[in-house]
Structure formats: C-alpha cells, structure tokens
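Risk mitigation, structural track. In case the binding assays with adenosine monophosphate fail to produce interpretable data, a predicted complex structure has been prepared as a fallback.
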Amino acid sequence: MTEPSLVRGAETPPLLEITIGAALDEAVERFGNELALVSAHQGARLSWRELAGRAEAFAAGLIELGLRPGDRVGIWAPNCAEWVITQFAAAKAGFILVTINPAYRRHELEYTLKKVGVRALVAAESFKSSNYAGMVEALAPEARSAAPGQLRAAALPELRALIKIGAGARPGWLEFGEVERAPGDAALAQVRAAGSRLSPGEPINIQFTSGTTGSPKGATLSHRNILNNGYFVGRAIGLKRGDRLCAPVPLYHCFGMVMANLACLVHGAAVVFPAAAFDAVATLRAVEDERCAALYGVPTMFIAILDALEKRAWDVSSLRTGIMAGAPCPIEVMKAVIEKLGMDEVTIAYGMTETSPVSFQTGPDDPIERRVSTVGRVQPHLEVKIVGADGAIVPRGAPGELCTRGYAVMLGYWEDPERTADVIDAEGWMHTGDLGTLDAEGYGNIVGRIKDMVIRGGENLFPREIEEFLFTHPGIAEAQVVGLPDPRYGEELCAWIRLKAGETLSENELRAWCAERIARHKIPRHLRFVDAFPMTVTGKVQKFLIREQMIAELGLTLAKTA
Ligand code: AMP
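Fallback model:
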C-alpha cells in the first residue's frame, strides 16, 4: 500500500517557552560581552549587552512618548543597527513591531499604517530613490507643524510619533538618538514591568506578506512562533556561539529578522549586515572582513555573489554553512555554492511568512543529492501534509497543496478573520498555496505555486521543472517560465532567459538543444532572451508581470478566464 503524504517533525528538543525579551536577558547573562551585531556600512558594532541596553533605552523613550504594550510600532528602513534595536525594544516592552517593506511607496505605506493602526513610526530619512520622510509627510502634512510625538493627522488618525533614523533635525520628527537618550527611571521600570507580564503566545510582530499578487495581508506572529523558528533554523545549520552570520537579506522579512537575528540571539552568534540593501560585492567583503561562518540569501542573491566571485577573488574560506531559501533553489546554483563558496554544510529551507517562516530544511547530514534537490525534511514540532483538490491526502510522490500545522503557524491576519479563515482551516492547517511532493523518506519538493501551474491541452506542466531543466544549459544564467493563454491549447509555456555574461545562444539553437533532451510539449512555445527579470525586494520574480508583458506584446486574449 502506498504511504500517505503526511509527515511529523521530531518532538525534541522541546519548544522554547519564553518571550523574546527574556531570551535577550538570557543572552546578556550568558554571553553579554560577545559580539551581537555588525552593520558594516554604518561602521557599527554592538555586543549583546550594548544591544540590550540600547533596546531597553529606546523602549523607555517610546513609553515616555505615550506608547503602551500592545501598541503598534512601525519600522520602515533598509538594513541597519537601529532596525534591530527597534525590534528588540518592541519585544522587551510588548509593542507589536510592524515591519514595512522598504520598497513600498505612498499608497502601500498608507494601507499598512492604517490597517494595523501604527502609533509610532521609525523610518530612514531616505535611501536610493525612496524619500521615506517625504512620503510620510505627503500622507500626514500636519507633521511639519506638529510637536514631536503629538501628531494628529487626518489621514492617519492613530499615528502620534515619527522617529527618524540618522542625524539632522526635521520639523515634526524626533531623532532616533533623542528617543533612546537618557531614559527616565520610571520609564525603564515600566519597560521591565511590561516585559515581565508578556507571555510567549502573544502577538509581537506583524509582517505584511510580500506576495506577488493581491493586497498585502498582515501576518501576525507571536514570540513563540518566531523565537522557536529562529532557534530551529539556527540549529539546522549548526550555528555556534561565536559564529558570524552574514545576512544580506532584508530585515523586514522573516529571513532577516527571524532566521538571522533571532537565530543569532538564541545560539550566541553575531549577525553581520554587509550593506543597507543587497550588494554582492559588499557581501563578499563582509564575509572576508568578518570571517563569517554562515551566509544567507535567496537564489538570485547567490547567483549574483557567485558572479562577483568570478570577477575578483575574495577570501571566503571562513564560510561553512548557510541557507538558500525564499524561492526555488536551482540545483546547479546549490552545487556552485558548495564548490565555489566552500559552504559544505549549506542548507535549503522552505517556508512562508505565515509559518514564521521555515517548515522544511535540509540538514548537513542529508545525502548530497537530497541536499541540492529537495527542501529537506519537516522541522521539529511541525506536521505537513499534501492534499489533492478534494482535500484528501495524496500518496507519496504525488503533487498537491502543501499544508502545515504546529507552533509556527501564525496567529492570523491582523483584523481579517475572513482572509485568515481562507488559509487556516478549523483543524489548524495552514494552506500554503504551494504545490509540493513528499518522497518515501519524507523529503519535500516544491513543484510550483497552485496558481502558477500551467495546463496545456489538459496536461499539467510545472514551470519549476522546466526552469530547472533550462538551467542545466551551460550558457544560461537564469530562466523563468510562465503560462500564457493560447487559443488552441488553453495555455502555452513561455520562458524568459538570461544568458551568462559573454555567452550567445539563438532561439533555434536552444530549441534544438531542448528537443534532444525533453518531451516536445515541455519545450516553451515562446522564448525571450532578457537582461533582467521583474523582482520583488525579497528576490521573488514577479511572474505576473512577465505574463502581462507577454500578453500585451503578443496581443493574446485571456481565453482561460473568459
Ligand atoms: P514569503 O511569505 O514572502 O516568505 O514567501 C513564501 C513563498 O516563497 C512560499 O509560499 C513559496 O512559494 C516560496 N518559497 C520559499 N522558499 C522556497 C523554496 N525553498 N523553494 C521554493 N519556493 C520557496
């Protein structure tokens, strides 16, 4: 009889049943004078004791501004030390940290601030083409004449305090340094009292899911959700006390603030931010300068890092481990990470914001073939099943929707019971929308998103499989496959391809190469050679934009939905 696609993770070690604030106190006790954080572009270095002290002082400053436990504190900035100080300040006093995507513009900012009623917003003044302070002032022009901390804005009725990272006065804004400076004893006592009343199941973080479509949803996560995920993710990569972990991934996403920051907190490692936003050369420089043992990235970041490594030799001999995650991880890229970056113990992780985020991860002990071609096995204290369209569990090997249950499942979308009920069922299963398979030994594979699956003449095609295949061509650096409407077959495949520098390849040559190797119906009908793909900041390709552009270019009609 075929086994059902249902797996349960280990039950040991036990879950951590403490708050993030208590974990920070423990870190200070155990390794307070050791390095906690390096922000290379700011020249900032903090020990755990310094970080905890600044977090407590900043929390006290927020209390003095009138904030109370449970209030929402927004953070809108690229990676920097103040981001982490704000994260731990919120955790200490029980403010709910709302992480706002630095790529957002005015419309998304307004939606986010209003949706969760942000009371204090900590923001960078500007970065690259984003004038953060200017966008806030465009929404709340009252700020320019308001006393700092006493804003009353018609469009954002709950917002009171604007706090700016970086020096220089700006009307209506407090400087970060002013808020953390010389906290009063009474406020400090209030922070400690609030911290001691918190419990691990309470919400402490709202993250707006990046998604590639639809309006953002505020995934609400508890201390238990994210502290434990950081713990188990760090354990899976063998993160040790004294290690340095290079995190070029954005902090507003779980990859940065949970998998990097909280993993370092519980394992006694230090997090290293190479730059405000991803930069391949800065990443290699930080690895070399700080002798980092671990490196994180989404696949496109590793591709760029490997490219940069070909142009100049960097000393990456300190690297041992790390994580590639966030999007399908091409086998060839994983192999190159092991060979060229020397990350022998690198792992693949799979998850989503709504599951804090990681639910599957490979381990250094898994056979090499599994380590580069699967997302590993289910993480401790979690259950995963794969279900068919009828909701029944499918046999091992068959694709279906991956569902997750256990401590990591979010509390829900903030004040949105309807959309929460759409994804978490009555039995607590989070329906991920990802198509996955489980093999006989419990290794998972993500074969696509439910909505990405292409049905060509009744045949289910998985873009992921075709992307992996195209990747095996020595001249191809990146490939993205989408479905396009087609009058004859319902849908047809379309591939966008980026060649490696200096390579040339014609459409006919590529077609001939494919024809020798894969079934005809899997050879994309439409092929385009491009220099870049539309991306979100978390490194996900926005396939819907590829689709839209091709539909417009080819003059196709949306036969499938008509
Ligand atoms: P986010 O909530 O922004 O973290 O996005 C989560 C989504 O990223 C998942 O639902 C998957 O579609 C995708 N994803 C994350 N990790 C992987 C992985 N290792 N392989 C394939 N897809 C992944």
